[in-house]
Amino acid sequence: MTKTVELDVAQATLSELIAGLKPDDEVVIVQNQKTVARIVPPKRGAPKFGSCKGMLMIISDDDEHLKDFAEYMY
Fold this sequence. Notes:
By secondary structure, the protein is an alpha+beta fold. It has three helices and three strands. Strands 1-2-3 form a three-stranded mixed beta sheet.
């Protein structure tokens, strides 16, 4: 559903406009009857398990680098 809002109204109620967005909603902000912005919810898909396979390598004998972070560790 598309909702059209004047710029001054959008400025006053921005948090409510964003909070009320549903997956298929869109807010069109207009000024002088011209579109100046659109607010749409982000497209989020379900995470695909295993999609990061092979992107991370853990080296078990890497304690040397931990010394650099000793002051941040408990």
